[in-house]
Amino acid sequence: MHALAFDHAPVGLCILENRIIQRANVRFGEMFQVDAASCTHKSIAEFYATPEEFIKLGERVYTAMGDTGRYSDERVMCRADGSLFWCRVRGQSTSPDSPFHKSVWSFADLSEDRPVVELTPREREVAILTCRGMTSKEIGLELDLSYRTVEEYRARLLRKFGARKLAELVAKLSGMPL
């Protein structure tokens, strides 16, 4: 019964050991355009937008999971054909004292509500932190950037998303109706 629930859940699910997929369900395979069974023993890095994001997010995830045993965010991920899409990602470690040892992750495709706009990895980081309600100064501290540099990234995001002000940008980034 448990295998049936895992395999046919309406969201992508996978079990990771040290960021290596041990098992993935059918929806995970559909979302990433792969055969779920073929994912076994592959690094989850194959589904990140860039190798740099795999490293940077890994550091953030490790810290959060070490503190609470859980992590969640919305990020751009990569399908097997190379296309990018927004994804809601949530994870639960089975051992917070060793966060990556074994964990369970869910993936929800947000592409219907949030189309991908070509962004640099840094623009994506600024966009994600902006959606979390962080100020430019807070984002600057988090990413080790000056306040003015963050403001420049936000200005680029406004232009790319056709938004006139920050609230409109956040609404577009989070897929909310305007």
Number of helices: 7
> What is the number of strand segments?
5
Largest sheet: 5 strands, antiparallel
- Basic shape: globular
Rg, alpha carbons: 17 Å
| Range of strand content | 15-25%
Which sequence of strands runs across the widest sheet?
A: 2-1-5-4-3
How does the helix and strand content classify structurally? alpha+beta
Structure description:
- There is one protein chain.
- The chain is of the alpha+beta class and 178 residues long.
- 41% of the residues lie in helices and 21% in strands.
- The chain has helices at 2-7, 26-32, 51-68, 121-131, 136-143, 147-161, 166-173, and strands spanning 12-17, 20-24, 70-78, 84-93, 103-109.
- Strands 2-1-5-4-3 form a 5-stranded antiparallel beta sheet.
- Helix 6 (147-161) crosses helix 7.
- It is globular.
- 24% of the residues are buried.
